Amino acid sequence: QGLKPIVSTESPALIFGTTTKLASDLPAAGSFLGKNKVPDLQKLFQKADGLPVHLKRGVPDKLLYRTTMALTIGGTIYCLVALYMASQPRNQ
């Protein structure tokens, strides 16, 4: 008889009753995408003002950067204190 396939060659039953939409059935791309902001952001990020890219958008970027730095420094100090306390013998 030869080799038979282990997996069934029949397509499985439909689980969800939704149908696939064709690309021609979808609305036009411009109707829901909005304004293209990429050219404006390219001008902003490529401006030669001496700022690093991660700080070019102003106050929100500075706030996120400083919060990240504070958490990093605080976490490092916490880890060093925990390591120091773990290295000390307990008094009984």
TrEMBL record:
Domain of life according to the entry: Eukaryota
Family matches, as InterPro entries: COX7a, Cyt_c_oxidase_su7a-rel_mt, Cyt_c_oxidase_su7a_sf, Cytc_oxidase_su7a_met
Membrane topology label: Single-pass membrane protein
Keywords recorded for this protein, A-Z: Membrane, Mitochondrion, Mitochondrion inner membrane, Transit peptide, Transmembrane, Transmembrane helix
Spans through the membrane: 63-86
Alphabetized SUPFAM superfamilies for the sequence: Mitochondrial cytochrome c oxidase subunit VIIa
Compartments where found: Mitochondrion inner membrane
GO biological process: mitochondrial electron transport, cytochrome c to oxygen; mitochondrial respirasome assembly; regulation of oxidative phosphorylation
One GO cellular component term: mitochondrial inner membrane
One Pfam family of this chain: COX7a
Family that this chain belongs to: Belongs to the cytochrome c oxidase VIIa family.
PANTHER family on file: CYTOCHROME C OXIDASE POLYPEPTIDE 7A, CYTOCHROME C OXIDASE SUBUNIT 7A-RELATED PROTEIN, MITOCHONDRIAL
Name used for this protein in its record: Cytochrome c oxidase subunit 7A2-like, mitochondrial
Organism: Casuarius casuarius (Southern cassowary)
Taxonomic lineage: Eukaryota, Metazoa, Chordata, Craniata, Vertebrata
